Amino acid sequence: MGKRYGDFTAVDDLSFSVARGSFFSILGPSGCGKTTLLRMIAGFLSPDSGDIHIGGQSMNGVPPNKRPVNMVFQHLALFPMMSVGENVGYGLARRGVARDEIKRRVGDMLERVSLPGAQDKRVDQLSGGQKQRVAIARSLVLEPTLLLLDEPLGALDLKLREHMKIELKQLQAAFGTTFVYITHDQSEALVLSDHVAVMNHGRFEQVGTPQQLYYAPQTPFVAGFVGANNPVKGRATHVNGDWVTLTSESGLIMSAQAMGTVRAGDAVEAFVRPEVIRLVRHASDFSETTFPHYRAQIENLLFDGANSAVLVREEHSHTEFRIALPQTGQLADLAVNERVSFSFDPQRAVCFAS
Hints:
CATH 2.40.50.100; alpha+beta; 6-stranded mixed β-sheet; Rossmann fold; 5-stranded mixed barrel; elongated
């Protein structure tokens, strides 16, 4: 399916399927077409080409209120003048469900989202995380085939967002409802999803499990967008099967695994993740490894507990690398301007023709 606005293509001839009962995320930067795609699935927009099937049924011409779909927005859209119970039961009341049945189903749903007995509370009495659960309960009580979530954690503070990621994953597993979730936050997509589609300029660059996207990116965009990476641009000076030796624009020589076709002489871009790089104080510590190693000077210390890293500059090419520090606390006493050595297995680096 596709969607255009004049000369601008918001969604460019996409075709994909989502397994029933799975958690599927669409990850991409602002303006890549995520929300347009979600609004077409929900029925708020009509595709210019193609069709959408939900539960095996074509949604062509089916209005939003007739689709087996519900949607949770970033700003939740709870009704402040209604109680929690009235918010959750609103859709059931609109469908003409009997009052006693609404009360029973609302009570059951609030139990399942860990808000037992909250029916009579006002919305403004709830925390951010509780409001989030009410919004999800309001959608799930209607038993949709598909639940669409449009950056629902974006308005929460960091600590609550981390907590709600786990809760969302547990809720989806408990209900077995198909979730389609859009986000620009790669951590949310990787933690929550069974499969992730990385979207860029209206197209999917790659669809796969979080592990596939992280360890085997198929395009430079995916390699650079999913997780932290050290990009190195240069030219392939030697190619042997899937192995590429490249020289960077500043003279750094390194080897990496080719992703796709790479020929000697091609302009290339390689990526090395911070956690695959081994950092030592003395080059002699690499005496037992055959991997190339480099001397560097520490330019910055990035302390973040178990996610701490250093920024170093390789001494010959002056290439900057971000290197993750061991979670054991080893090397926690490194200092700015200290000279160190680093190395990495070329099998853990990837290279693309650019």
